[in-house]
Write a structure and sequence with these properties.
The structure is a single chain. By secondary structure, the protein is an all-alpha fold. 75% of the residues lie in helices and 0% in strands. It has 5 helices and no strands. α2 crosses α3 and α2 packs across α4. The longest helix is centred in the last third of the chain and has 30 residues.
Length: 100
């Protein structure tokens, strides 16, 4: 079975949420990040909303702009994905056990 496009996958949604959360936690605005990247604020907004894909080099630059190491971002992302996956698995198990 082919996998759905990653920009519509649950993992990509978590990626976008992590991107925005870490930017906000850094105290930087989309405009701050855009100025650092020498881009328009709308580009940053589109990336965070998933309307524009972000490649690994752009992600690295984004991380520099918000003061987060790329490796640290990946660690947070993996933790966030694992948490959501675990929560979904627990919910499914509860539903199955309640049917019995």
């Amino acid at each position: 079975m082919p996998r759905e496009k990653s920009n519509f996958s649950p993992e990509y949604a978590i990626f976008l949420a992590t991107l925005r959360r870490l930017r906000e936690a850094s105290g930087r605005t989309q405009t701050d990040v855009a100025n650092f990247l020498k881009r328009d604020q709308s580009v940053v907004s589109k990336c965070e909303r998933g309307e524009r894909r972000i490649d690994v080099i752009e992600l690295r630059d984004y991380c520099v702009a918000i003061g987060v190491r790329l490796g640290s971002f990946i660690e947070v992302l993996e933790t966030d994905i694992a948490a959501v996956t675990t929560a979904k698995a627990s919910q499914q198990a509860l539903r199955r056990s309640s049917r019995k």
